[in-house]
Amino acid sequence: MRFAVIGAGGLGGYLGGRLAGAGHDVTLIARGSHLAALRAAGLTVIGVDGAATVTPVRATDDPTGIGAVDAVLLAVKTWQLDEALAALPPLAGPDTAVITVQNGVEAPHRVAQAVGRHAVMPGVAKVIAMLAGPGTVRHAGGPGALDLAEWDNRPTGRAERIREALVGAGITTTPPADIWADLWAKFLFVVPSGGLGAVTDATFGVLRQRPGTRRILQAAMAEIEGLARAHGVALPADIVARTMAFVDQQPAEGTTSLHRDIKAGRRSELDAWTGAVVRLGARTGTPTPVHDVIHEVLSLRESGSASA
Ligand SMILES: NC(=O)C1=CN([C@@H]2O[C@H](COP(=O)(O)OP(=O)(O)OC[C@H]3O[C@@H](n4cnc5c(N)ncnc54)[C@H](OP(=O)(O)O)[C@@H]3O)[C@@H](O)[C@H]2O)C=CC1
Ligand SMILES: CC(C)(CO)C(=O)C(=O)O
Question: How far apart are CA 148 and CA 217, in angstroms?
Answer without folding.
Answer: 27
